[in-house]
Amino acid sequence: MSTQTKHTALFGFGTVGQGFYHYLAENNNDKQLATIVIKNASKSRIPDNLNFTTNVNDVFQNNQINTVVELISDYKEAFNIVKNALEQGKKVISSNKKMIAHHLEELVELEQQFGGKFLYEGAVAGSIPIIKIINEHYAFDEITEIRGILNGTSNYVLTQVFEKGIGYQEALHQAQQAGFAEANPAADVEGFDALYKLLILTTHAFGKFITPEKALNIGINNLKNSDINFAKANNLKIKLVASAKSHNNKLTLSVLPTFVDENDDLFHIKNEFNGVEVVSKNIGSQFFKGKGAGKLPTGHVVFSDYQNVEKTTYTYQHVPSGKRLKYETKESIWVYSNKITLLEKYLEDVVLLNGPQGYGSIKIADLIKAKDLLNLHQVSVIALSENVKQKLFLQLKHKIQLVYA
Ligand code: HSE
Q: Which CATH number fits domain 136-292+320-327: 2.60.40.10, 3.30.360.10, 3.40.50.11060, 3.40.50.300?
């Protein structure tokens, strides 16, 4: 492919689109860009002298275009673009996590059927090349757990609230201004964005295609000041933790606000940074940290996919082993809630603290069922990491002993 041919079409010129274009121009590859498809022709653009169009046919009826970089926010439109491009055997790069989480299995089939290419490093964990790490580095080991902070916006909000005492709304506004948040920030704070990313990683690490409706995501939107104070009083932080784990041929996964202590790497991840721990059979635990959102960090991984599109292929090598794993939602977890009694009918075990606050053991499947109820009453749920549970329960024991001494 001649580097002078205009063989590339870019869809979208928002935060990530502009980031991608920055690297394209900086590396003198902008001559490869045939057109940039945008939705709104009247919006002012910087630079404004590029070949913008609102007509998708400029791409799909142009045989010279063999590479499509899809960076729009509408996930349904994104799906149509990527599907059409793959059906034409084109090389496709996308960062649309929502679209990929909903349609990955079908898109991989199209990639294989029509001989195109589909890469999407920019969809997960911003600048951390986590898909590449799993795809290449972990091809020779069995991953047993992936656990991390995958949403920069929520982590930014939690950091500001915890460390600077800024209000939730104000912190979210700052994250939007900085270009970290989704067009609709509910996707960030309700844990959907982290779930989409977790499901993409689950496919690569465990070989399972699981769609979002079947999985648990609880976000940071119902957290209360009393929860923050409870965490601080116990030297803990609350982080939005996405985790997928295999155990005894079962795969469990969740996105939940989680109490973490200072011994946990995630405790130290601040602002828009992401952090991912990968645990595997022979290597043990490894931890990766990097900027999880923003124009240049995300634009960079998209550009890296673009530059390496010929030589990179996702092999989905863990997919055959995934057949042995059963996706399981009947596993129980321990959570804290500011109104644990709301979950009464689902709880297997309960420890009441002050008034309505307390700990409870609950099946993941029941938390999925209880999600609407929790949102309706704006009740918080915070998972206890194993370390933290032991500490908090030990404390409880001491208190009980004191009362009865
Ligand atoms: N809204 C996303 C986040 C952008 O905050 O992590 C990066 O995917």
A: 3.30.360.10
